[in-house]
Amino acid sequence: MNILKNTAFLLLTLLIVSCSTTKKEKKTIPTYANDTHSYAKPNEAVAKHLQLDINVNFDKKNISGTATYTIENYVGTEIVFDAKNLKIQKATVDGNEVKYTLGANDAVLGQALTIPISASSKEVAITYETTDKTEALQFLNPQQTADKEHPFLLTQGQAILTRTWIPIQDSPQIRLTYNANVQVPKDLLAIMSAENPKAKNENGQYSFKMKQPISPYLIALAVGDLVYKEISPRTGVYAEKSMIDKVHYEFADMEKMVNAAESLYGAYAWDQFDVVVLPPSFPFGGMENPRLTFATPTVIAGDRSLTSLVAHELAHSWSGNLVTNATWNDFWLNEGFTVYFEMRIMEALYGKEYANMLASIGRQDLAEEIENFKNQPEATHLKLDLKGKNPDDGMNSIAYDKGYLFLRTLEVTVGRAKMDVFLKEYFNKNAFSTMTTEKFIDYLNTELLQKNNIDFNVDNWVYKAGIPKNAVKIQSDKFQKVEEAIEQWEKGTIKEEELCKKNWNIQQKIHFIRNIPVGISLEKFTKLDTACNFSNATNSYIAMVWFEQAINHDYHANNVDTHIDNFLMTVGRRWYVSTLYKAFKRNNRLEDAKRIYEKARPNYHSVTVNTIDAMLEVY
Description:
The chain has helices at about 1-25, 245-250, 255-265, 310-315, 330-350, 350-370, 395-415, 415-430, 435-450, 460-465, 475-490, 495-500, 505-515, 520-530, 540-550, 560-570, 575-585, 590-600, 605-615, and strands spanning about 45-55, 60-75, 80-85, 85-95, 95-100, 100, 110-115, 125-130, 135-140, 150-155, 175-185, 190, 205-215, 220-225, 225-230, 235-240, 275, 285, 290-295, 325, 435. It is of the alpha+beta class. It has five domains: about 1-30; about 35-225, tricorn interacting facor f3 domain (Immunoglobulin-like); about 225-315, Zincin-like, CATH 3.30.2010; about 320-465, Neutral Protease, domain 2 (Orthogonal Bundle), CATH 1.10.390.10; about 495-615, Serine Threonine Protein Phosphatase 5, Tetratricopeptide repeat, CATH 1.25.40. It has a seven-stranded mixed beta sheet with strand order 5-4-8-2-1-11-13, with no helix packed on it. Helix 17 (about 575-585) packs antiparallel against helix 18.
């Protein structure tokens, strides 16, 4: 009788524990935000780990292979992936082939790839290959590289282009770990946003591991004749052979930047911080792929004057990679925080005045962007509504520079010491998670404003157009001296030769060129170029702002038109080229723009192509 009672009691206890465990499991199911830029339904079934096995074929200019996912199925009878311009060959669930479906094609989003699963399903594998319409990939011929000996491949996943080279649940809130096996030609090196090799092997087979969960847009691959050079045990650079020494010199302060960042907001969470300098067609200044930042060669100026870009991408290791915007409507949470952090790193290394010059340039960019959006005031909100639009449309100065100005104004209001404590805890408590604007505002109110009894117009900054009146004023003494010199030059009390001999740094020169008076005579403009040789500038940033002014002033001397043509033919950085094409259009030189673009377009990445196609209304 006692044995039966004990057995019954034990069974009852197990039943209670089982029910309790079931309830706990249900409570731990994550709640994902509604992302209008992904077909995935992560609240039903979600991928947690990717095993990617692919072959890179330079002859066919494609990637083929299998993406195998470890999944968690909460309540679903299917799991939905994003795919765009991919050839799906088959799908299996736990090793058994199943019938998949592809939804209607959307020009921006691509197609929903739906695969049936059961409650016990653990693994889904998709065999596929890319096509010539795959937007994330750019295959370059040897002539488009620095060494001009071997072809090159680069990927660019942000915002929603990873789905064009991997079928994936392509929402930033769906973080996953990944392993990869990549086959490339044996004379090339493959590197990814993961643990990387430092040298080529004999068979062209490379394996990768990313043990920290990351967002899909951060999965990245580069393949080329690359070499590596260490800066410190945890920092280093990849580049083509002819550039490696220049790149190593330019980025020599990388370890100092990591140390400065850690002293502000906590330990670097990604083990290694390397940078690869890509061919000039790369469409951005940099891309913060974890462990391996992608960078444009336009920052290799020979004097370390443009390396704030490296500080920016490093800052993303906290704001963006560690704590990530949940949807692209919340993009400012990535970029505004990163610009703020970038300025703090630059201030720590090079002084407050230097950081203020950088911030002042950003403030000018913001004013110009707000003017551009004068007929679309909603586009100047920090929290965006991009439903039905390409999320790329929200990647402009509003997210970056208005986001920064919001945080800097907040810092001035609460005090830097309290701001730093708040941000360090924010990154620590929310590490490896995603954040919506609404969740951040709740956190800000609870953890900073209410605790310190501070009233701040958060909603006005986030949900209203333009710049609030309480925005902090950014002052730069060195820029003030530049403005005084411009005034003297305009009045004729200082000559062009004297201007050119001033011991100005790059930021001061940029500020000078950008603020050349609109009504300055062509004669004075020509004398300035002859004296300072701006049309032959080797610093790409100076060249870009000077060429814009040349177009604005209808200036054609000193062979500047040829220099502009060559610049647009060889540089693919979207910010730079779009600035010049926009200047052509604004100054009624649309035919010149189209003539150059017809030749240059094949050299650009699809990210740049899509922007310029729309701007010039071609193709």
